[in-house]
From TrEMBL:
Keywords from the UniProt entry: Signal
Cleavable signal peptide: 1-19
Leucine-binding protein domain sequence ranges: 39-374
Pfam families (alphabetical): Peripla_BP_6
Name assigned to this protein: ABC transporter substrate-binding protein
Family the UniProt entry places it in: Belongs to the leucine-binding protein family.
Biological source species: Phytohabitans kaempferiae
Length: 395
């Protein structure tokens, strides 16, 4: 479909470039080396402060569920998990990354939420030959393995749907003003235009500091848009969706977004989120024995449903589990990276997948609707959008 190809093409053109970080890092492949049978040191870089702190909590929970299931081990080896704060800026994340490779000398790293931080830390780890297993949006780096989703697959799948459902309507685009926000909104806009959908307007709001969205909501109202695509995550998503409903826009324009818009925020958003449509790689409603086991363990431990982020970190642990076992003997960054290229099928709560040539999964994408089930909000599956490659092609 033309809309999808337009989104995928622009997303590829806007792929995150690796940025040099300066400063010295550990050279060679011996950082974090562990002798046969010795504990393996893994860095866990997650936001414990700032706008993405709630997502960081979900990552920590997903990681813990996997470790609980495997007796605290990965690949049959004891794990020394070194957790550091990613913060909410690349500067904080880069300082933490340098600590992991220079002082802690970890064998591998997982976590990382903010795309700008991911770009900022990428060469810190690749220079040290330390592999990263993460949802972070970094491409063209032989030491970076993406386990969650990619911008092209997410953009293409929702563009395909919007082109089919909103082609004769006006769609307004709004998102946070930082690299990830602009990349996604620009790609969605290009895909919609290529598919013949009219854009009612585009707005970027100050990242991490916007508390009152009313001025921006007023512009959406004036545009007469009948659908809105919003890119927000964490606390920003909670505020935006709540104020969108309070302003009454939910009665004028259907609100769409990717999984970040409601993921981990439904409790805070409450009934205000009702009817919001998102595309996602995971839902606790997936009917499989492994997913049921994961959801049951998560609910029992945290009295909450697992999120996309929780599942993605669980998947990261599953990948590291297979890679560490395959590396055997002395585990180093280089031996782990070689093992990561050979892990094959990965069984996770979302389903079975394997890394493609771009070191990211090809997987099923779902369309979900936020629904009030007797006072408990949940993202219910509306339909399966299809199987998309990491480059945004529907397979």
């Amino acid at each position: 479909m033309a809309g999808r190809r337009g989104a995928a093409a622009l997303a590829a053109g806007l792929a995150l470039a690796l940025a040099g970080c300066g400063g010295s890092t550990v050279s060679g492949g011996d950082s974090g080396s562990s002798d046969d049978g010795a504990p393996v040191k893994i860095g866990f870089l997650v936001p414990k402060s700032g706008v993405y702190a709630s997502i960081g909590s979900d990552l920590e929970r997903g990681m813990q569920i996997y470790l609980d299931k495997h007796g605290g081990k990965l690949g049959g080896r004891e794990i020394n998990l070194v957790t550091v704060d990613e913060g909410s800026t690349p500067q904080v994340g880069t300082a933490a990354a340098r600590r992991l490779v220079q002082q802690e000398r970890v064998a591998a790293v997982t976590g990382i939420v903010n795309s700008a931080t991911a770009v900022g830390v990428a060469t810190v780890f690749s220079d040290a030959k330390t592999p990263v297993v993460s949802t972070g949006q970094v491409t063209d780096n032989p030491y970076w393995w993406r386990v969650g989703w990619t911008n092209p697959m997410m953009n293409a799948s929702i563009v395909d749907y919007l082109v089919s459902k909103e082609k004769d309507k006006n769609v307004y685009l709004i998102g946070a003003d930082y690299k990830q926000g602009r990349d996604i909104i620009d790609a969605i806009g290009a895909g919609l235009k290529a598919g013949g959908v009219a854009i009612a307007g585009t707005t970027f709001t100050p990242f991490g500091t916007t508390q009152d969205y009313q001025p921006y909501l007023s512009e959406i109202q004036k545009s007469k848009a009948t659908a809105v695509y919003a890119f927000y995550a964490g606390a920003e998503a909670a505020r935006f969706v709540t104020q969108y409903s309070q302003f009454g826009l939910n009665k004028q324009a259907t609100l769409y977004g990717n999984q970040a818009l409601t993921e981990g925020n439904l409790a805070a958003q409450g009934p205000a989120a009702s009817g919001v449509l998102t595309n996602a790689i995971y839902t606790p409603r997936i009917d499989s024995p492994l997913n049921k086991e994961f959801v049951d363990a998560y609910v029992a431990k945290y009295n909450a449903q697992p999120s996309v982020y929780s599942e993605a970190q669980y998947a990261s642990a599953a990948v590291l589990d297979k890679a560490i076992a395959a590396a055997g003997g002395e585990v180093t960054g280089e031996s782990l990276n070689t093992a990561l290229s050979q892990v094959g099928d990965i069984e996770t709560p979302r389903g079975t997948w394997r890394f493609d040539a771009a070191q990211a999964p090809t997987q099923t994408i779902y369309l979900r609707r936020a629904t009030d089930n007797g006072g408990v909000m949940s993202d219910e599956v509306v339909e399966t959008l299809g199987v998309y490659t990491s480059e945004g092609e529907k397979s």
